[in-house]
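Forwarding these from the shared drive since the link keeps breaking.
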Amino acid sequence: MRPVGTRLDDRQLRLLDEWAPGLVVVKDHSWGLVGTTVLEVEHDGRRLLVKAGDGADHHLAREIDAHERWLDPWVATGGAPALLRADRAAKLLVRQWLPGRLVLGSPAADDERTYRQAGTLLAALHAQASVVDDEHEARENARTLRWLGARHRIADATVDHVRALVATWPDAPATLVPTHGDWQPRNWLVDSGVVRVIDFGRAAWRPAMTDLARLAGQEFARDPRLEAAFLEGYGRDPREPAAWHRVRLREAVATAAWAHQVGDEAFEAQGLRLLDQALAVF
């Protein structure tokens, strides 16, 4: 059984044949820029989602971890899909299919009610646990320097400026919580006005404010009403100004470099714009 148009390897195909023999592929939802295959399938009268990583993938394990450790509160209320089968070594999972359409590109993307619900959902994720990490800031500084040393089209003068700033940044302990890692409308579904969450491949321990970084550069910048609604749902503003400026600059560097490496010119341009905006604060 080899679903047409997919990049699944033989081990992944054998597991799928064991877990869901005779499944039928309904649609390939793979993004195409990275080596992750996402399939909407039918098996035994049920609609399911299959996600598989290639040899370079490092997101499937995070997604499985998120399902096993942090998603129960969302799953219990229908806010996230239930994990049905998974194999870390094979980089393969099968989960429940969630009804709804992507918020991105829909009228819900400009609806304050969407962001109020998204804030409430995120608060529930963040509230589950916290840890103090003495090395988080140092790791993040080193990560930013690695991006600057990789392939990108950030101007040399900007690279020098960012390197100089990073050298002055503190490495004080940081409080980390479970985070989604890509919290934005392209990972939210809306069904009859109810917001649900998908795509947990970047889930990890991070400061709570990091889950606001992508919204701040896009939706919040476009419409302050959406930011106000989100914070109302979340219950407070988790952004401490000095740390927030560092988060925004790191996010911009990573966005510009990563998007260039995968050939997403529009996202690269966004990252470069966000980098200029972040540097203006410093």
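-- next protein --
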Amino acid sequence: MHPLICGRCGALAEAPLVESPPAVLVCQACEHRQPFRRLPLWCVTGPSGTGKSTVSRILVERLQERFVVLEQDVLWLPGLRDPAGNHRAFRSAWLRMAAMIHQSGRPVVLCGTVAPPELEPLDERVLFCDIRYLALVCEPNVLAERLRGRPAWRAWSEERIEETLDFNAWLRDTATELTPPVKLLDTTHEPATATAERVQAWLDQPAEAPPPEEPATAPEAAAGGDALEPCDTP
């Protein structure tokens, strides 16, 4: 189910319109209402070198009956990259993809470098009842050593390493102040298997109910500002 294309009249919307509860996609051309699973999206984020890719491969095996675990970089394609727009097309494409997968009843665990300010303002945010963030971080000297030890084809220059260390420091300093807050998991002194176990424990925790919100006006709802209903359980 494409969240921007009406299943009855075929109209293409600029942004999805979701009404809830219960969650339904509403066509802005013919007003057709299509039931829609609005599940949580789980984001395992953090700077390069903290173990996201290795952990995701472990989680695929452990969680295949309950979640769909995906690596964000698989869609890192030239047509979706736009540094001037903070790679908005890339991030929107991932939200649409995850929302379509959710219609199968299994939530997505998306592993890749992302932060709440990059996903929460997007029009497609309304397709999820919640987005939950867990960031893998590392002590800076260990992280720099890991990045310098990567194969030459990855082109880790000192400038690029410094940018990654800055992102690592930003996450460690601001995680609890972001909206929503980001949970931190330090991977400095543990093997990937232990990190995967801690990520799985995070996924198994019951979600906290979102705080009550004021009812959104129609323009706010169309832009993804509607209140979140309790998540469906897969």
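Residues 85 and 118 are 10 Å apart (CA to CA). The radius of gyration is 19 Å.

- D.
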